[in-house]
């Protein structure tokens, strides 16, 4: 039986759901507030023929279903790229993942000895049940390495002290990694035959990447969706949604009203969506949704003469003397991103809060700051910069403060009274995970809709885009999408 589905947001989650639903002949309308770009934060913007990411996006997943989706959409247009990244600290560049002997040489014998002793101390006397980022990372690496390689960068990203960031953030973003595992990886590279599910994501050596950036994936996906009958409404924000008599109505920014939806899938930020749902959410969950925080960032794109070429995809800047947090080298992501081989294109990322001093600075001020800081770091000279461009990205990262989990749980509990409403994706679920996680939540939502019942709980997708109760991964699950039957797991009660 055909269902009518509204999808809010044409990012990885929204377009994945739209594509899979359209393949099963469902009626789908996608509402995207951006007038030009699909892909959300995974879009690729362009300026004078130069293409650049909003943050840099590796295409690597432990989920076979996600990898197969990418292949189905782009096929041979996906490149296999070597992963190359470094950390800039104390006027030196350190390979990342760690190369043990290089780190030893650059930190110096005495500092390295102190780091090892700090690590030993952490293993002998760990913080029991760590609840914040600082304690979790200290348990894994020791206090000294935490201060060198984690504290400055993390506080740049989040704008709050590390002891106010939930340990959940560390547990999911650097899962399975410790000083010992990093050194082991440096000395004994893991064999490819071990399978993707055996690899620590932080330590992967290569990844796939669309020739013209991640936005290419979602632009092609959107085109295929439209050819299959999906109605894609660009430049159309959603003002509110309402449920009555088992159906949903969507009111959009130009005051049009779309009705008779059986389902609504939303990847809009949770804090923005909940106030615009009718009937109104209960007071407790409503208040909890408004306490959720977000971190924003500005990318300063510098187009330069390729005089001081470096091969890194990106570099983490662990130096408090500069404001920049990370530098992307788009030519190393893909040579197709830069139209002139004599030129380079770098993206300097400044993490901020919407409305603060960095966010409200003029483009000229930000470009001049970028030129000054890229020379200070030593990546190129300010005189090599021939042009610049600025992109501001609101709500790039859902903040994992100490209260976020309870706030999200309050919203989840209230959602039970709104059948047919699915929250998907990074901001929709307030989960700072990679795009494969966003896609998997959309895949499971699509399966529930097609089946007409709740086979899967989307909240049971883990940070590796695997379903907790059985795992959509590996050869054993190769045909799960065709069967559309639940895995060996607990079923969700209606």
Describe the secondary structure blueprint for this structure.
Elements: E1 4-8, H1 12-23, E2 27-31, E3 44-47, E4 50-53, H2 64-74, E5 78-82, E6 85-89, E7 92-96, H3 100-107, H4 109-124, H5 133-141, H6 143-158, H7 167-173, H8 179-187, E8 206-210, H9 214-227, E9 231-233, E10 238-244, E11 247-252, E12 257-261, E13 263-266, H10 270-273, E14 277-278, H11 283-290, E15 294-305, E16 314-317, E17 326-329, H12 330-333, E18 343-352, H13 357-360, H14 363-377, E19 385-398, H15 404-415, E20 421-423, H16 425-429, H17 435-451, H18 480-483
Helix pairs in contact: 1-9, 1-17, 3-4, 4-5, 5-6, 5-7, 11-15
Outline the structure in words:
Helices cover 35% and strands 23% of the residues. The protein contains 18 helices and 20 strands. The strands form 5 sheets. The chain has a 7-stranded mixed beta sheet, sandwiched between helices. Helix 1 (12-23) links the parallel strand 1 and strand 2. The longest helix has 17 residues, at 435-451.
